[in-house]
Amino acid sequence: MTAPAPTTSRPSSPSAPLTLIADGMREVDQVIASRLASGVPLVGQISHYIIAAGGKRLRPALLLMVCGALGYQNSLRFSLAAVVEFIHTATLLHDDVVDDSTLRRGRPTANETFGNPASVLVGDFLYSRAFQMMVEAGQMRIMQILAEATNIIAEGEVLQLMNMHDASLDEEGYLLVIRSKTAKLFEASARLGAVLAGSPADVEDACATYGQALGTAFQIIDDVLDYDGDATELGKNLGDDLREGKATLPLIIAMQRASASDAALVRQAIENGSTDQLETIANIVRQTGALVAAREAAASEARRAIAALGALPANEYSANLLQLAAQLLDRRT
């Protein structure tokens, strides 16, 4: 079975390929709203605050898209898509505390609004609620996939923490972090769609490969936009990665290609977590071609994702999965 070729005209917004599952995503939103209920008012208040902020919701959407491609229409997919979003939201709450972030999706982070202790504890609530819901699914394989994903994400978070202010981090180390921290939940979401559909092992693995590659490309582009984006459109502060001392791919490539003095400037900024020279460093990243090289690395991952779709039936859902990977490379927000 072969996935269809991409069309010549690509949509300009990541939401365009997802219009096919718009009704399904509304069902997911209803599940999310109903399962956020808690006898502790602050739990619901913070949970609603961060989930209501919106976002691309790519992980639950990916699960629904794969289910559609493989012909699975049971309502269990809505519950598991909500589980995926709860896990993702919990990681955001914890991330923003660890990173001391103040802005997400164009408004103050939950920790900025409610404080660090409340954000951490509500993140814990969302994790535990997600596990309650996956138990209700009654399938050990589902629990295994999501438990493993959650554990690897946590390891990725710790690994990233260990790498903070380490200007010697190479591309391999960088990819290890983002494939654990970001791409793993994309991978699990796509794999779950195949598991729900009762797909054979080769199809399940192909879906997981698609999700991992898509998630890796997504994070690389996200890191590019920290030096090549618009803060208003992105909904976050430019230079946040540098302020946090993160050696992301654009900086790693720039240090490899820059003059000794420019490389030393970038290295010092990472080690000190300083954005005093942000404009100069952004120019170094651009002038060395690091942004172009990083986008090509993302393109390579997108091509890997597209190749994996060959294991899926050719239908409107697999066509939209292909478009999602293809247009990710044009992402500007």
Could you walk me through the main structural features you see in this protein, from its secondary elements to its overall organization?
This protein is mostly helical and 333 residues long. The protein has a single domain (16-328), classed as Farnesyl Diphosphate Synthase. Helix content is 71%, strand content 1%. The chain has helices at 22-35, 41-51, 58-69, 76-98, 110-114, 116-136, 140-163, 171-181, 183-196, 201-228, 231-234, 240-243, 249-257, 260-272, 278-287, 290-308, 316-328, and strands at 103-104, 107-108. It has a two-stranded antiparallel sheet with strand order 1-2. Helix 4 runs parallel beside helix 7 (140-163), helix 7 (140-163) packs across helix 8 (171-181) and helix 13 (249-257) packs antiparallel against helix 14 (260-272). The chain is globular and about 60 Å long. Residues 1-12 have low confidence and may be disordered.
The largest sheet is: 2 strands, antiparallel
* Oligomeric state of shown chains: single chain
Instruction: Say which CATH homologous superfamily is assigned.
Output: Farnesyl Diphosphate Synthase
The CATH topology, please? Farnesyl Diphosphate Synthase
Strand order of the largest sheet: 1-2
Low-confidence stretches: 1-12
Question: Radius of gyration, Cα only, in angstroms?
Answer: 20 Å
| Tally of contiguous helical segments | 17
Mean pLDDT: 90
What separation lies between the terminal Cα atoms? 34 Å
E-strand count:
2
Q: What's the helix-strand series?
A: HHHHEEHHHHHHHHHHHHH
Proportion of residues in extended strands: under 5%
Structural class designation: mainly alpha
Helix content: over 70%
CATH C-level = Mainly Alpha
Number of domains: 1
Q: What sort of overall outline do the alpha carbons produce when their principal axes are compared? A: globular
The second-level CATH architecture is Orthogonal Bundle
